[in-house]
Hints:
By secondary structure, the chain is α+β, with helices and mostly antiparallel strands. The protein is built from 6 helices and 9 strands, in the order αααβαββαββαββββ.
Amino acid sequence: MTRRQQAIGFFVALCVLLVGAAVSLNIGWIVINAQHVAPLVLGIISFALIIAGLIVYTVFLVLEIQRNEDHQTFINAVTHELKTPIASMRLYLQTLQARDVDEARRRQFYDIMLADADRLHQTVEQVLKAGVLSQKRTAAPRTPVDLATLVRESVELARTRHHLPAEAIALEAHDGGPLVVSGDAEDLRTVVTNLLDNAVKYSGERVQVTVSLAAPTPDTVWVRVQDRGVGIPRKQLKRIFNRFYRVQSRGIRQIKGTGLGLYIVRAIARAHGGRVFAHSEGEGLGATFTVELPRLMTERDPATGAVKLRSTRSHA
């Protein structure tokens, strides 16, 4: 049992004891003042307020303990994500400074340091993006975005970044028409990249990810990322999009990350008038994440013959 569980158990037990004591006193007050209406009513109301206050206080205390634990977990994760690549780059730089190495090894060291720098940059970007999304801001300028092209580029980037063969991430398109949405291309790229990174990280040793593009209805577009990895316990499916939350399951304690990726995905999807949802049959059975966005449809101006795009849904 963790310290948080012990603290929560202690305060819940204390609340139960205090509520029990208050109820006992209330019963005694009712017995003593059964013949006096005014003191009886006043006592019942007072005791009810005391009990309600105890319950509310305990609930807020438990939530604060959980929030502090999440923040501590986030700080530990970010510290690890920052220190590890820095230590790696420092080691290789010291080696290059202290020793004469051949050109092949020098290039290898450069590649490793570039990968560490990319990991460091990605961590910083995640933290900054989460900070921006947590604050209210004016909507960014939106342009038509070809989702098929964006997803294809994101898949290629994921294969390169994680050093995967082409068959490790399969791309499927289930609609022959243009899949265009209105939004910020970089934000949408962040959504797809985060989902792909999660799928690869939680796939274990054998990465087998399927990315699907489809238009299930005339006014919506789906991007679906499915992996066959460690899966998600069903009780945690509603919590995985919370900020700082990381899945608690067997065999995934050592997976790196900040706990912000899925929070960012949900925030961006909502900002674009869409939504994201997850599905998993349980531990060891993989997970599927689906992002649904409003689709832009093409229409031809009867007067000029020009092709225009129109949104099928107003943005939230």
